[in-house]
Amino acid sequence: GAASNGQGNNLFIRAHISKSTAFLGEPVTVIYKVYNRYPMVNFSDVKIPSFNGFYTEEIALDKNGKGVSETVGGIQYTTLEIKRTLLIPQKTGKLE
């Protein structure tokens, strides 16, 4: 899934989800990546949504992670993974 399609934006965040359907108790990974066209931006204050109906566990990231080049809609961005969360569904049905 994507928080924004990113087209025409110089800075946006996308949430990449490992799978859209899971069994009760089956882990799903969410990776938040910043797509950036600015030379220097501080991402220490990013607000991440809460996940109702899931047990969540934050996965430690390499603090020295380097930006990676990625092209979205023909525009080149520097991307940086800012958060990785493990979600484990605690109930059945459609969860958002």
List keywords for this structure.
5-stranded antiparallel β-sheet, disordered N terminus, 0% helix, mainly beta, 96 residues, 5 strands, elongated
Commentary on this structure:
The chain is an all-beta fold. Helices cover 0% and strands 44% of the residues. The chain has strands spanning 11-17, 28-36, 54-59, 68-72, 75-89.
Overall pLDDT metric: 81
Spans of at least 5 consecutive residues whose pLDDT stays below 50 are 1-6
Number of helices: 0
SSE sequence, one letter per element: EEEEE
**DSSP strand content:** 35-45%
Query: What is the overall shape?
Result: elongated
The radius of gyration over CA amounts to: 15 Å
Report how far the terminal alpha carbons are from each other.
11 Å
Q: Give the strand tally.
A: 5
- Structural class based on helices, strands and sheet pairing: mainly beta
Percent helix range: under 10%
Largest sheet: 5 strands, antiparallel
